[in-house]
Amino acid sequence: MNIQISAPASQSSRIRNSVFLQKVTVAEEAVKVIGHGDTVAVSGFASAGTPKAIIPALVGRIHAARAAGSNFTIDLLTGASVSTETERMLAEVDGIALRMPYQAESTARQKINAGRMDYVDIHLSHVAQQVWEGYYGPVDVAVVEVAGITETGELIPSASVGNNKTWLDVAEKVILEVNSWVPDAMDGIHDIYYGTALPPHRRPIELTDVEDRIGQPHYRVDPGKVIAVVETNAPDSASPLTAPDAVSEAIAAHVLEFFDNEVRRGRLPENTLLPLQAGIGNVANAVLGGLDRGPYRGLTCYSEVIQDGMLHLIKHGTVRFASATALALSEAGIAELTSNIDFYREHIRLRPQEISNHPEVVRRLGIIAMNGMLEADIYGNVNSTHVMGTKIMNGIGGSGDFARNGYLSMFLSPSTAKNGAISSIVPMTPHVDHTEHDTQVVVTEQGLADLRGLSPRRRSRVIIERCAHPEFRPLLTDYVERAQAAPGAAGHTPHLLGEAFSFHQRYLATGTMRTFH
Amino acid sequence: MNIQISAPASQSSRIRNSVFLQKVTVAEEAVKVIGHGDTVAVSGFASAGTPKAIIPALVGRIHAARAAGSNFTIDLLTGASVSTETERMLAEVDGIALRMPYQAESTARQKINAGRMDYVDIHLSHVAQQVWEGYYGPVDVAVVEVAGITETGELIPSASVGNNKTWLDVAEKVILEVNSWVPDAMDGIHDIYYGTALPPHRRPIELTDVEDRIGQPHYRVDPGKVIAVVETNAPDSASPLTAPDAVSEAIAAHVLEFFDNEVRRGRLPENTLLPLQAGIGNVANAVLGGLDRGPYRGLTCYSEVIQDGMLHLIKHGTVRFASATALALSEAGIAELTSNIDFYREHIRLRPQEISNHPEVVRRLGIIAMNGMLEADIYGNVNSTHVMGTKIMNGIGGSGDFARNGYLSMFLSPSTAKNGAISSIVPMTPHVDHTEHDTQVVVTEQGLADLRGLSPRRRSRVIIERCAHPEFRPLLTDYVERAQAAPGAAGHTPHLLGEAFSFHQRYLATGTMRTFH
């Protein structure tokens, strides 16, 4: 193969190394290196950093192969979700045999739930090490978006880091997308750590403050592996942004009151608390908004993604420093960041996800983990992933990385869904992503259940009283009282196995968990 | 209070500091400091290091209070289990209001399952930090067994470390039991790390090899807090030892074959593998015995307890070094250790359990975690604690510390229990201690299921085929096939909610999970 032949002349000043310049080509040429059955590792985390040109070209190749009567699927490894359009176009052509580690798109979800796409839903901190350990076989091709290539042949990361360092290290062949839409001045915001290893060669990760720089600003890559460089100038898809609603504001208020109490009791540092991690979405945004109105100054965040709300907090000084692995901004957020990039670059660090989610660092920093959930049971077991126990929604993502090893593990959700038809507090969750051992605080708009130091029976009282919607409280209380009274069978964690999923079964049969209408 | 008045003259050369010598008294005097409602933190981990004199004296005090018409209970915090007799005598007098973090004794278990004792079943690595964080209120009294007191007033640990360092640090008052039965020459086997802190003051734990010494040999204590020193000369209770049976040997054979394959595929270092962690019991002993007959030399162990089998491995050179937080030896094992203590002291390190089980260290060292279980479901969710979902057996102990952050997380069990009436592979576990995300390998005497990189549907096939007992395989296959065929409802993780616990319900109704007799 001699793809240089068809390469267009580079129009870009982003490729400042002649070896790489010679490899410039178009996406349609580059994807010829990807074959049926290949394992393809792709950049992208949330809405940031997905390759813009290669995947559409690959989809074209899959179409052509199908038209010619051949099958064509890949195993797709990413950081977390990739852009919605990218996930959808690959799912629509049935182009993915195996997907790992996270998705959040409706077409892919349908294929997975229909058993037509294998999906391996793992902790985001585990991805790099599991690929290094060979659980997914060799990685044939990496497709990585970068902002530029330096004179020395290093790669300037774009708006997400994710597993890109690992993909560049392990892949047999590499396709680079150089996206000149990414502001030049973002160079320097990244901290790419090259100190990880497989055991027995691991050393301490010397990160003790959220803003510590422990790596280098750029990725390394063996230029001999780079088989094509494709130039693009295309924006990241914007993350949708919805204003916090009354329910989110109520949840946030309970969280903020809890923080105030913890500070008063000397269990959290005043002003600065401890580094915050918050999942994506309305509730997280409402909590961040609430912090901005509170007494806190100089907060830190150690999380996966940076959303619009974080930019405001940084600008106001409420947040001193935020570490993440990706930006996930709205169009307005992207404009705010790019027009003030010199300021934000001094207050944001983007790291590989094996570091942003690393158990060692999460434990050391003492993260306050705030993650959403689908439902919790009356004992504090949490389901983050499976609707009615069987259908995947998105995936566990990084929630387990933070909940398991953090200082405080909080799970947040409205107390009901589907206009009140679904209770997010149930007798037993039909899928468990976070066990009772890892759940310390549950919050709904109804209130906050502090489960620390409580036995299961006490937990059930607190969760039902504080968190369940009043319309479901009698049903839950009735369940647990009868379970506790079961002759000779109640046990440490009382349950009635024949009724443990009665809420879910009722919903499947009648469309509501209510017994009243 | 002036307990020195009744103090007997010390007979022991174990107390080499005059301040402490003046505090020597008898147990009956010492326990007067413990009052109803107190939180009492006690030394002890497995069968080693439980105080021998104070608890019986405390039980006497509880008896007397009850006879006088008063209630008398304590909240009891320990390392893990304490000696069986100790746990039993306190449970028999209903002396415990709250128990944390682990128990393994039948009377206590009955009280807990009857709702008469609050039990908080948490990860062993969390105990020290949660007590420091104040989840259990102030610790009124610590009762700690030591082997001696040095000239400078430091304390020589005995046969378990557990949380003793933390108890001595946080308790308002301290009672020491100086047990001269512990061999003098054990001094030096311990490594007490004083570098932990609450966030935001945590630093990296600079332990990169199982044998690294990062602390000091002795505990520190503020002598002003020590209100009594009681002398004893009493052996640890011996851990029962049963010879591996055919089922355990078969499980071990599958594990060893798996290790061989991993070495061959370059995924584990040959000869030395990676540091091993094994739970207590027959299966663990069989695995260790198998390693002794294999090609391995210079292995290391990083675990909670050291059992007899480990001494043999060390003596043969199969194991180069073993780190743990406690010894749990049979009478023969105790004799072997004490008569060769100078040898074993060079190959064993006993650490605080916050270090033996620390997520940072477990992840860095790349532990191979081998833990027992009650049951696994067809997707790899594991129940380690609750019989039929409600009745506590023991507790999660350290299994989650190792499974969640280790390199390989393996769960081991015979495929059946109760003479074949119970299948340890079930459609859904009615309690989850380790989620599918944290279970990589399941092993029974039937075979080994390697779940790495597999989606749930693939996992179910492998677990049923490899691990389920042949008599239960058709039932499990029938369940999963019907779940997969459920119209519109199958999902990523197919289940039939109305039948998910049919195995357990059948057992509760008929005494067996079988449908055939």
From TrEMBL, chains A, B:
Residues noted as binding CoA in the record, renumbered to the chain: G279, I280, G281, N282, V283, N394, G398, K418
One GO term (biological process): acetate metabolic process
Occurrences of domain Acetyl-CoA hydrolase/transferase N-terminal (ranges): 19-183
Active site positions: E304
Ranges for domain Acetyl-CoA hydrolase/transferase C-terminal: 333-479
Residues making up the signal peptide according to the UniProt record: none
GO molecular function list: acetate CoA-transferase activity; acetyl-CoA hydrolase activity
Domain of life where this protein originates: Bacteria
Keyword tags: Hydrolase
Record-stated family: Belongs to the acetyl-CoA hydrolase/transferase family.
Protein's UniProt name: Acetyl-CoA hydrolase
